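Reminder: ligand-aware prediction takes two inputs, not one.
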Amino acid sequence: MDAADKELESGLGIGGGEEGSVHSWDLSTSVDGPGSRMTLFLAGCPLRCQYCQNPDTWKMKDGKRHTVDEVMERVERYRQVMETTGGGLTISGGEPLLQAGFVAAIMRRAKELGVHTALDTSGLLGNRLSDDELKDIDLVLLDIKSGLPETYLRVTGRELQPTLDFARRLSGLKRTMWVRFVLVPGLTDAEDNVDAIADFLAGLTGVERVEVLPFHQMGRAKWEAAGEAYLLGDVTPPDEEAVGRVRERFRARGLTVR
Ligand code: SF4
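Here is what comes back for the chain with iron/sulfur cluster:
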């Protein structure tokens, strides 16, 4: 069992609901959903994306334990600014659904307060949330890291299928999705890899927008600090033209692209 598998196992022992392992909190605007948002980053991730910007979020044991009540106290504190700006609460990670019970409990309480909720996830563990729990999530920021199964495996170390199954389920439940795809030259930018995502999304309902995010080297120092082998040291970020071409492939399927 490797380190990422251990995270998957350890995730089953925590987040039964009342408390979870939190990496950090942040207040941001126009990044993780509409308006000003409080983003809660949970610790622990069973993926190992080669371009991960936050390898410091990978281990659940490195986070700090917080109760749902503690999280909600912060949400209450920022509620006014969230309401004024049309913002809300975003739960991100790591992979937040490693602690699905914790996520579900927070989302339920946020909805009871009338706060807009978003979940930033890879979708790998989407089956850990019930349909009822998904109804407490207004927006899913779904990171689809590649469209071809073999490329997805190379990029993340995990299987693509659970993410596709989750997206189909969200579509069936008429949930709103913003899909994110990171364009990495030489890794994710093959036309058939991009087209596989675009074709898949074109068959769904609820995909409000697709965001094509150009790879950059800003996470590199964190890999070095974590003592992890960084494989993308020689990769140059894609230029605007290359990003534009990929965006066009999504637009050509009738998708709205940002
Ligand atoms: S899912 Fe997110 S946190 Fe996990 S390895 Fe990938 S980019 Fe990093």
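The chain is about 35% helix and 20% strand. Residues 45, 47-49, 52, 54, 57, 93-95, 122 surround iron/sulfur cluster (CB under 6 Å). We will return to this case in the review session.
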